[in-house]
What does this fold into?
Amino acid sequence: MNATRLDDIQEEENEALLTLVLPPALSDMLVDWLLEQPEVEGFISLPVNGHGGSEHSMSAAEKVAGYRKGWMVQTHMPQKAACELLGRLKQQFRGSDVHYWMMPLIVGVHLE
It folds into this structure.
């Protein structure tokens, strides 16, 4: 997604589901950073295996195994807040192999 599109959706009041996928070595640093961000009320994190993608950047062991280990973080918040968070994330973690996507969230609440 380019910056223009992020700017366009900042005007929306809808909720977004933000997913980050990152190298395991970065997980502690990114989790600590997320815990310091005011718009992040909570999130989940879990180990994942990535398949396909950029094989040229995979190690020999990853090529043999057929996947690359990673860490995934998901959180939801208003779209505008997610775009602001992504802006700071891009500054802080530029070049660190973090992949993200943001999707509209229909509903996200605790059961009462």
Notes: The CA atoms of residues 15 and 78 lie 4 Å apart. Residues 79-92 form the longest helix (14 residues). The chain is about 30% helix and 30% strand. The mean pLDDT is 85.
